[in-house]
Amino acid sequence: MYVCRGCLRNLAGAAASAIAPRTLGPLRATTVAVSGLRSYSRDADSIRAALETAPSEPRSKSETKPPNNDKDGANDEELGYDHVDSKGGALAKQRYEKKLEKGIQKHLSMMPDPFHIAQYISTALSKGKFDEALMMTRMASRSKKVEVSWNHLIDYLLKKHRLHAAIKLYNEMKKRAQVPNAKTYTIIFRGCAISPHPKLAVSEATRIYNFMLKYGSLKPNTIHMNAVLDVCSRAGDLESLFTILATANTSMRSPDAHTYTIVLNALRHDAERTRQKNQGLIDEEIRREIQINIQRARALWIDVITNWRHARLVLDEHLVVAMGRMLTMGESHDNEGVLDLLDQAMKIPRLDKPDVKLPPMPPAKSSEDATTDINPTSPSAPSSPPPRTPPTLSNAPLYAKPSQKTLSLALTALTNLRKTSHASKYWDYLTRLRNILPDADNYYCYLRALAVGHNSEKVAALISSFPRDFLGPDTFRRGFSTCINDNLNPNTFTHACRIFDVMISTQRYPDPMAMRLFLRSARLNTKHFYNPFSASGARKDELAALKLHGRQLTAAVDRMWEPFRILASSLSYPTDATRSPEELLARQRNDMQEVMATARGMLAAIDRALTTEGMLDNNSEVKLWKARRVVLQRAVERWIAKLYPQGRGAGGSDKEDTRENVLGEEEVGVKSPPPQQNRAVAQHAW
User: What distance in Å separates the CA atoms of residue 470 and residue 463, rounded to the nearest whole number?
Assistant: First the structure.
């Protein structure tokens, strides 16, 4: 509010030359009691609008910039201050700059060294003070070389996925006579690799890289080439990738192991995308596309081996595993090449060949030998340490060192080749002789290989040796599935019981699906019971087989009884608090259906044992299983009443569903025992 006539007259006269008279609104007379004088005031909003639209005032870039409608970020992103009030316009920006400049000048007066300036910039960016860091870098660039500070700013913008702003800052750096160093280009290329716009990142990275090759005073090196290759690999642009790879030479841009690893992984990801998208192709065409990438990888591996044998490249596990994973996507001869690859690059022998034995374990050093080696008073101890010999080509570690990735690769190749009987040899060789500590992926790959080979005995032993943190529902499901498929083994049910005991002892609540698979293994693994009979004793042998089959079924249900009771009781005591019974039922619906399906499977097994003549011949056992069947039947009916209070609807009623899936008492000819006569049996049953 202007209350002085002289100030108001001067303001109107100053604005008259720059502002058209029609832009100024008429004066508005107001009576303000200030020293008893009449004062005039102008609407503050109209004055501010007139000053901002004056021709003499420079308009902000945000007002003249067209709207950015490009989804891929093709338009240039404005590089300005983040904490400026957009409603204030140019005046607010000027005030904000002046306020920052005063504080920055004080800081710069106490930091004459560019190293301390870079440290301050890094600390400010870690706190989110980008405006202060940007202005300090601009002001320090007038008299000092602060390339490191510019690198921090560019890296900050790239981590925020502001690619265009970072490129604009890079151009501003050059205009302010700050020469970009090798670290600057590395930051830009690596920032392009994590950009959410891969096509735009590839175009920017290749443009800067080609500029460095042709016109730049700083030529790109191997690190820059690898960073640009990583950008092309993440974008899936194989054409640009091989174009950049063609710029490699034998001096500054000599390809190393990381270079070939990036290219091989790009070929593998391209093959996986071809397999997943399927693009209307038939299987033969998909295999043909994958074989093209495999042939490219084989041609690249020839260059790798050539450089390795001429001591121009050091093999590492990442490179060998990248090539091996590419081969596992091919046919059987490609998977055979994985084992040859491990033999060639890591000196892992082909243990799947005939007459190949596992190398002997190294002898353990005794305690006496250990004390002799470290005892300085021993007569055999040397008086001085032996001289160190420099590493030469004969004793240098030429081969790659295997680890968990190599173990998973070997097991995957053996699984694809269905040479699962040799998986144990590779497992023992790599874990015992090469001292590889298996991780979760190694255990699962080994379990998958044994499951494909239907080796229930080794699967049970492996699950028993699993670390507890690696055990889960999928582990037990795969183990029981292996027991189901191993039908010809008479000891399969014993192995399934061993797996079941591990599940009960390690899991808080058993998995319902795993319990059903265990029960299925007891029902299906019966081929060793029904062997061909002789003509003389056919009836006697058949009754014995039925009795053994019934004993196996009842043993499985009896083993499941107590764990199933604990699992069913968990539905009555939920761990999470709920606001209503409806919400509790909605949360427990899936779990209740799984438990109910397990109960129906147990009912079916009991009905099979009760209705088949010859399976149960003991009256006490028949009485016990009839009582247990009643308990299960009533539990299923209670769960059905909770899940479907209005009935099944158009599909039928709950009683029909129960009778359809579980043999009812009337259908199987079993009557429920009177509750008062068999109360003790029922209490023992549940």
Answer: 10
Residue 352 φ then ψ, to 5°: -90, -5
DSSP conformational letter for 597: H
Nearby residues of 327 by Cβ (< 8 Å), 6 or more positions away: 294, 297, 334, 335, 337, 338, 341, 413
Q: Which residue, among 609, 610, 603, has the nearest Cα to 660 in the 3D structure?
A: 603
- Give this prediction's pTM: 0.74
Calculate the alpha carbon distances from 338 to 415, 429, 534 in Å. Answer: 12, 17, 51
Q: Taking a C-beta distance cutoff of 8 angstroms, is the pair 556, 518 a contact?
A: yes
Q: How far apart are CA 605 and CA 550, in angstroms?
A: 9
Q: How many Å from the N-terminal Cα to the C-terminal Cα in the chain?
A: 88
Distances (CA, A) of 538 to 534, 543, 546: 6, 9, 12
Least confident interval from 65-79, 444-458, 596-610, 622-636: 65-79
What pLDDT sits at residue 458?
Answer: 94
User: What integer is the mean pLDDT of 187-203?
Assistant: 92
Whose structure tokens read 């192995």?
495
Nearest to 523, CA basis, from 618, 604, 594:
604
* Helix, strand, coil shares, percent, the chain, to 5: 65, 0, 35
For residue 679, is pLDDT > 50? Answer: no
Residue 166 identity: A
- At 582, list the tokens: 């409806």
The distance from CA 83 to its chain's CA centroid, rounded to whole angstroms, is 36
Is the pLDDT at 183 greater than 50? The verdict is yes
pLDDT in tens, 489-514: 889 999 999 999 999 999 989 999 99
- Write out pLDDT tens, residues 341-352: 999 999 999 988
Q: What pLDDT digit, counting tens, does each position of 367-400 carry? A: 344 334 434 334 444 444 444 444 333 334 589 9
Q: Which of 453, 460, 505 is nearest to 480 (CA)?
A: 460
Residue 416 has which token pair?
A: 């694809």
Integer Cα distance of 266 and 597 in angstroms? 46
Do 321 and 260 meet the contact criterion of CB atoms below 8 Å apart? Answer: no
Closest by Cα among 481, 496, 489, 321 to 413? 321
Q: Kindly list the distances between the CA atom of residue 502 and the CA atoms of 350, 479, 613, in Å, as whole numbers in the listed order.
A: 34, 11, 34
Higher pLDDT, residue 138 or 394 = 138
- pLDDT reported for residue 176: 92
Q: What is the pLDDT of residue 31?
A: 40
Which distant-in-sequence residues (6+ apart) come within 8 Å of 669 by Cβ?
611
Strand ranges for 474-537 from DSSP E: none
Per-residue model confidence (pLDDT) at position 275 = 82
Identify the H or E element spanning 245.
Answer: helix 238-245
Report strand pairing: 28-34 vs 37-41: antiparallel
The angle, 0 to 180 degrees and rounded to 10, between the axes of the packed helices 317-327 and 332-346 is 170
- Which two tokens mark 383? 């008086």
